[in-house]
Amino acid sequence: MRHFGHIAPEVRQRLFHREPCAFTADSPPHVLASALGATLYSPATRPRLADDVLKQGGRGVTSMVLCLEDSIDDSEVGEAEENLVRQFAALAGRGVEPPLLFIRVRAAEQIPDLVRRLGPSVRLLSGFVLPKFTEERGVPFLEALTAAEAEIAPGRRLFAMPVLESPELLHLESRAETLAGIARTVDKYRDRVLALRLGVTDFCSAYGLRRPPDMTAYDVQIVASVIADVVNVLGRADGTGHIVTGPVWEYFRVQERMFKPQLRRSPFLEGRADELRQALIEHDMDGLLREIELDRANGLLGKTCIHPSHVLPVHALSVVSHEEFSDARDILRPERDGGGVLRSSYTNKMNEVKPHRAWAERTLRRAEVFGVAREDVGFVELLAAAIPAS
């Protein structure tokens, strides 16, 4: 699979200076972690789940979470587990590589049980999403995952994606200790942890909050402060950090907008791009686009998504611009190892080699999996090409 692999090769050639790389579920962990992109959640109760997975894969989704936790009723868990076993068997019989698939469980004992019940179709499973992760609750999950892989699925690599969403992490008096415990745990199981996910809905719930579509997670200060502390401790660029993914965008319609649209008109003047701009504003998607940009500015990569319409905007905004690529490549040239300052090849900024090195390295990792746009190609062109014309 590859990002934008669902569009025609000739279109990709027109859009990309460097196309996204191809990857599989067996690719190196650092590639998979960067390539998660927009991770689409789906309740595990869906009766045609196998069809849904392949349909979304054909539309550009590269990672999915099949949820046994908050998205289903407590009384549905047993039925949902049985459905997962059936749907994985159906997928295995299709002979088509699905997106990266993860199961979100409720309890540690579900992990070995599901791995056992999946049988040969476990080869389609990339790992498990671990809810409300702290040191105390997380260790049993990770131990169960390690044991299941060794005893039930030898030779099959299974990853963990902890979700950071517990009240202990949110509350100021326990945040530092909770973060330190999480850091100890994920460091001990570093080869097992693919990425860390933020559960912002639970953070808001603890205070009875729900952000409207005109506001991003970063406008809710109590949420923004947690994101900052998580990145501070767990997202460092010194070799100790992990990829932290962006929070879910909770889209719902409002009858009347309270604020002016945040999307500028000027980039949308070509062809159906103006139509696309209007559709994004009418569906309150301009707030999502702003949040994706803020995710990246704050050190996050990828995003949890609950609706297919959110996937392609996340991917389009993850593509590295030609300007970013040029700056990153210039900074990392071998002759620059000694440091120094140089003018950007776009002549619009200063590139300071030593302080910007970590940014450049991250940018080139993102470029590997999401590609580099041509000099005259921006977000709108990428999105317009990726969304089929109606």
From TrEMBL:
PANTHER family, A to Z: CITRATE LYASE SUBUNIT BETA (PTHR32308:SF10), LYASE BETA SUBUNIT, PUTATIVE (AFU_ORTHOLOGUE AFUA_4G13030)-RELATED (PTHR32308)
Protein name: ATP/GTP-binding protein
GO BP, sorted A to Z: oxaloacetate metabolic process
Residues reported in the UniProt entry to bind Mg(2+): 202
GO molecular function, one term: magnesium ion binding
Cofactor(s) this protein requires: Mg(2+)
Keyword terms of this UniProt record: Lyase, Magnesium, Metal-binding
InterPro entries with a match to the protein in the record: C-C_Bond_Lyase-like, Citrate_lyase_beta/mcl1/mcl2, Pyrv/PenolPyrv_kinase-like_dom, Pyrv_kinase-like_dom_sf
